[in-house]
């Protein structure tokens, strides 16, 4: 999945998952919930 550079650093963190919902791309991290990001 294409991820913009703005949220790529969050997507590389351990435990993070890239999810696409309703046309937005989210980065969700269960290990550290502060590491969330949204694109679009």
From TrEMBL:
**Please, which domain of life does this record's source organism belong to?**
Bacteria
Sorted UniProt keywords: Ribonucleoprotein, Ribosomal protein
Share an example GO biological-process annotation for this protein: translation
Question: Record's InterPro entries?
Answer: Ribosomal_bL36 (IPR000473), Ribosomal_bL36_sp (IPR035977), Ribosomal_L36_bact (IPR047621)
The GO molecular function terms of this record are: structural constituent of ribosome
Which is a Pfam family this sequence falls into?
Ribosomal_L36
An example GO CC term for this entry is: ribosome
Entry-linked SUPFAM superfamilies: Ribosomal protein L36 (SSF57840)
Similarity-based family: Belongs to the bacterial ribosomal protein bL36 family.
The name of this protein is Large ribosomal subunit protein bL36
Q: Which organism is it from?
A: Bifidobacterium catulorum
